[in-house]
Amino acid sequence: MSSHREAPEISQDPVADNTDTYAFVSPDRPDTVTILTNYIPVEAAAGGPNFYEFGNDVRYEVHISNAGKAQADITYTFAFSTEVLDKTTFLYNTGAITSLTDPKFNRRQSYSVTKTVGPKGRPQVLASGLACPPCNIGPHSTPNYTALAKSAVHDLPDGVKVFAGQRNDGFFVDLGAVFDLADLRPFQTLHVAPMAPSIGVDTFKNAINVHTIALQIPIRSLTRDGSVPNDPGAPAAAIGIWGAASRRKMRVRGDTTGQHTESGPWVQVSRLGNPLFNELLVTMTHKDGWNGSPPSGDAEYASGVEKPELSRRIPDLYPRQFENLRKLNATTRSDLVALILTGVKPGIVPGLANYTGPTLADMLRLNVAVPPTANRKVLGVLDGDPAGYPNGRRVQDDIVTIFVRALTGAFRPYFDKTYKPDLAVGVVTQGVQTPPTGDTGGPNERFLSHFPYLGDPYDGFTTPAPVAVNAAPSLSVPGVSP
């Protein structure tokens, strides 16, 4: 969750595991779009002596579709390499790291960025040798981590900014509750196995980091015609975005040297557009296949969207609360198909217009003509905020609550005016407080108001306080009872 352990095979290959993809019009540079793709799930802050890093043998990609065919019309490719300065020590660093070129920074990563336009375009190397920051080790080894991370933000041609390195995992979720038979804590008095209500537990709040590839790209470089649309109804305004990772088809393991060689074509092993797609909408035996396939082939997985399993189970998990949903489950969920697989045409859902064409494809769809909102709502479009999910995805969006409400029918009345959602839908929540946003970095600020928007990673020396679980008042749903 969002895509941290979504499939059996990729859960054993964390450096290639795309955990989250975000895309939003940059609030501080509204003529640009920021795209974040995260990898390496559930990084413990104290990760020494071999700290987390990108895979030298993994090809990381960010794909943008702008021609309405759910194909990659623009691709940014990242390739990493690692250098060890002092081969006589086992240490990641031999003293305080005060700059990216500090000789005490012993094991370093750098990367190249290549851009390809069109399915048969010639790859263009935009930059190489770009430095990654170190992992956040602790106050003695990385005494001014915020400055180190800032120095790892690089400028590329045509006004593009890029960053690649460790960040605080901004995904907030009560993971234990979601997969314990969807027993959402604030809502659990209504569960089939009722318990006293409590606030949600942010599983990733306590010293969990991730590795982020971040791009900030001018809108004119993303649209099909080079325009900067002001009208959300303009055909060029809606684009599709997804992240991916690939490995060579063959690997020969070294014997006593520990050096391996790879050969053959690149094979995709991970991808991510919409959050939670593979987790909640793809069956166990097809999850690895989904990770290896392109979005344009997602018609094969449409049945999981048209008749989602979690929607079928919720009425039994919460007796008497979702009887309208129980009836809806007998139909084909055209509302979910639009929200997740095609985007929504203008005029159907107020404030939402991100239709990218008829091809069924899991992509994160963003309307670049919708400006950032000053009064941001974490429930996005459901709460009247057109700049939030499912119009792209901002780091602050509570996508678990949004996704579960969508599954239980919150958007259905826009597609079927005769449908009335169950009263319980309006109070469904995971109950996790949205993490704070700031500008100084540090583990108390999961989010920043500027690029790369994810806060500084937790360090391995300073252990954050355990997450408290406090009692919460029982939720009341008008007209229904436990």
Order of helices and strands: EEEEEEHEEHEEEHHHHHHEHHEE
Helix content: 10-25%
Number of strands: 14
DSSP summary: helix tally: 10
Shape: globular
| Beta-strand percent range | 15-25%
Q: Using only CA atoms, what is the Rg? A: 22 Å
Number of structurally distinct domains: 1
Outline the biggest β-sheet.
Answer: 7 strands, antiparallel
Class from secondary-structure proportions: alpha+beta
> What is the overall pLDDT average?
92
The unreliable regions are none
CA-CA gap between termini:
29 Å
Ordered list of secondary-structure elements with their pairings:
Layout: E1 18-25, E2 32-44, E3 58-65, E4 74-84, E5 107-117, E6 124-131, H1 145-151, E7 154-156, E8 160-168, H2 175-178, E9 208-218, E10 238-252, E11 261-272, H3 277-281, H4 287-291, H5 303-306, H6 309-317, H7 323-328, H8 334-342, E12 364-367, H9 399-407, H10 412-415, E13 437-438, E14 447-448
Parallel strand pairs: 13-14
Antiparallel strand pairs: 1-2, 2-9, 3-4, 3-10, 4-5, 5-6, 7-8, 8-9, 10-11, 10-12
